[in-house]
Aryl-alcohol dehydrogenase
Amino acid sequence: MKVQAAVTREKGKFEIETVELAEPKAGEVLVKLVASGICHTDTAVIEQYLPVVFPMVAGHEGVGVIEKVGPGVSALKPGDRVILTFPSCGVCEHCQEGHPYSCDDNFNMFFGGNYRDGTKRMTDAHGTEIGVLFGQSSFATYAVANQDNAIKVDVDTDELKALCSLGCGVQTGAGAVLNRMKPRPGSSIAVFGCGAVGLAGIMAAKIAGCSTIIAIHGSKGREEALAFGATHTINGRKEDTVARIKEITGGKGVNYALESSGQPPLAVSMLDSMAKEGLAVTVSVTANAEVPIKLEPQIMNPSVTFAGCVEGHSNPKVFIPELVKFYKEGKLPVDKMCKYYKFEEIEKAFEDSHTGGVLKPVIVF
């Protein structure tokens, strides 16, 4: 079928084209997209900070309505409203144990340009195959996805557009807190970065019952952090972040910390801010960046754990419905982060995202 898609053929550029989208294969679904969020990872792909091959259609926070199902799909049907999320191989030990975020082939599944079976679904007018991102390529009017990364949700179609980020950004930030950290009620947490991922972490920390929630922001983000649940804020560009965290916590440091800024040096500041036996988690896309870590004073002596976390340590079939429940209860007001753009305004949406003018740009089809 003919669909409209934002195709990237060279670094830093994309153009809306008419392309051919193949029918869903066994275990797959065809989704008419309602909207797609724009995430930092999309920029990393389009700018080739990650080793992707063009042409490719980016977009990995799609939401929509199932229009057709392929052979063997039984849990989903036409008319179901779904949030598209990250893909996994489905057969490795981690996937079989319900840990798809640690799929043995996750990097290739995310960025390799193919579906599970090693093939593509899009071709251009010349018959050239177009790579898929995250098993969905949601910067298009339709998408084919595996049934495992199409999560059925009980919301109205109009509500779907506000929930794009549950497929990646919010799932990452909230999951890092609720699934990876599992903070104790009354504990303290610092969140480095107040973009959509960091703010999701702040909301999750409030849900978890953290009593001290410290948000480290840049030139923007203070008001948003306070609105979403931060008890304290620190301007990381003007204040001594580590000293302020120690001051707020009575010299102890924080029990938990989340680094979501994408700025590698802040991982070091995070480690310096930890209390004894603290857990520091990084979720940033920083490619091959390296930072100096002093093993004894920062890790060993204080018994601090420094952990990575992919896609919020989430089993999406379980966690995304939980996030929707929090949203309905008013505990996860992700709709307040969104600004909506028409598909033909996608360049403006990226521009606003890069300048910090909007927290979560959402393309509406």
Observations:
- The radius of gyration is 20 Å.
- The first strand starts at residue 2 and ends at 8.
- The chain has two domains: 2-167+333-364, 173-309.
